[in-house]
Amino acid sequence: MTATPTFRAFSRLLALALVFTGMVGCSGFSSGISRDTFKPYVPEVVQGNFISKEQRQLLRPGMSRVQVREILGTPLVASLFHADRWDYAFSIQRQGVAPQNFRLAVHFKGDVLERVEGEDMPSESEFASRLIKPRAVGKLPPLQASEEDLKKFTVTRTPAPATPPSVALPRTYPPLEPAAR
Questions:
Q1: Is 166 a domain residue?
Q2: What are phi and psi of 117, to 5 degrees?
Q3: Burial of 121 (0-12, 13-18, 19+ CB in 10 A)
């Protein structure tokens, strides 16, 4: 029960024709595809503690560690080798928006705040505005309706049906589970 040589040649020729047709059909398809058509999904990555300009302005030399922790939160890095330094770092990466990185170092002398180092922090509203990806908005249609347009959507109200006669509800209901024997 072997296939005849003509059947084998025909099936090979058919397979070759299908491959060739597929390749020719796909050659014109690439003109509509740009480099950005198939992008992998990049998840939003948020790391660290965001410190706002308002929080930094509340810090004053002479504050205790507890007061600093109440304002800024738990530090991201508190090294055993640098016990008098707390580091706060924050980074966020979103698709379509430039990555944002912020760093702040708080130095203590004993249990008292000595100085604060770091870059200028954005206010909460500035930071929120940086997260929004700018979008191009096309021309919006006018949101007006003429009297003729409103007449198209008038609803004719049908009278409500007469209320059905009230049915007395039972005072007791059967048990949900069968009685134990």
A1: no
A2: -120, 150
A3: buried
Give, as one character, the DSSP assignment of residue 130: H
Per-residue pLDDT of the chain (181 residues; tens, 9 = 90+): 555 678 788 888 888 888 878 777 666 555 566 666 677 777 777 788 888 899 999 999 999 999 999 999 988 887 788 889 999 988 888 777 778 888 999 999 989 999 999 888 888 888 877 777 667 777 877 788 888 888 887 777 777 666 666 777 778 888 888 877 6
Q: Domain for residue 149, yes or no?
A: no
Residue 39 lies in a domain: no
User: Is 100 part of any domain?
Assistant: yes
Task: Name residues whose C-beta falls within 8 Å of residue 55's C-beta, 6 or more positions apart in sequence.
Answer: 71, 72, 121
How far, rounded to the nearest angstrom, does the alpha carbon of residue 122 sit from its chain's CA centroid?
22
CATH of the domain at 53: 3.30.1450.10
Range of the domain at 96: 45-131
Query: What tokens appear for 147 in the block?
Result: 């009297």
How many Cβ atoms from other residues are within 10 Å of residue 48's Cβ? 19
When divided into structural domains, the chain yields a total of: 1
